[in-house]
Amino acid sequence: MDTLLKFEDAAAALSLDYVCVFYVDVKASDYVVLDFYGKLAKLNLQHTHNFWADISAISENLIYSEDKESFMGLVKKASAASASQDAQIVNYKCRLMVDGVPAWFVIKAAITHSRGRDFFFIGVGNIESRNVNRLN
After folding, report:
1. ∠ CA 111-113-115 to the nearest 5 degrees?
2. What angle is formed at CA 34 by the lines to CA 133 and CA 11, rounded to 5 degrees?
3. Are the C-beta atoms of residues 64 and 102 closer than 8 Å to each other?
4. I need a surface site. Which of 86, 97, 118, 136 has the fewest CB within 10 A?
5. Radius of gyration of the chain (CA)
6. pLDDT of 40 above 60
7. Inter-axis angle of helices 68-84 and 51-62, to 10 degrees?
8. How many helices (H) and strands (E) does the chain have?
9. pLDDT of res. 27
10. % helix / strand / coil in the chain, to the nearest 5?
11. What is the pTM of this model?
């Protein structure tokens, strides 16, 4: 069996469950965003900085108003977990604004360790569209 996995193969697999994935360097706070578009998983890769500040700013317009307080609590908990390097997986459901309408999403986060460094791996999946597809 060929054990080499290409980046594109991993992205295609992730795109089945997630609309985007964040890969965050815990210490430096730098991160990469993988956005997936369509069934062919066209990949838009963005390198950016200061995850904690960016996620707080983004949440102002993206998180549904009734879910903002609990979401910011999750961000604080994640930041504390990264500082203590607790090994855990977090599943969180919230509503994100999509074209001005709230839609249910699940956010799954885990701390991973690679090459002597700690990373957050965060997947964001649209569970509302999955439920609609199941009903049709």
Report:
1. 155
2. 70
3. yes
4. 136
5. 15
6. no
7. 170
8. 4, 6
9. 83
10. 35, 40, 25
11. 0.77
Separation CA 52–CA 58 (nearest Å):
10
Residue 88 pLDDT more than 80?
no
Q: Give the residue from 134, 87, 131 showing the smallest Cα distance to 105.
A: 131
12 membership: H or E segment, kind and range: helix 7-14
> Which DSSP category does 134 fall into?
H
Q: Half-sphere exposure (CA, 13 Å, Cβ side) for 133? A: 5
Work out the mean pLDDT of the chain and round it to a whole number. 78
Q: Give residue 66's pLDDT.
A: 94
The pLDDT confidence band at residue 82, using thresholds 50, 70 and 90, is: low
Confidence of residue 60 (pLDDT cuts 50, 70, 90): confident
Would you put residue 116 in left (φ > 0), alpha (ψ -120 to 50) or beta? left
Report the alpha-carbon distance of residue 31 to residue 85 in Å, rounded. 17
Q: What gap in Å lies between CA 55 and CA 120, rounded to an integer?
A: 13
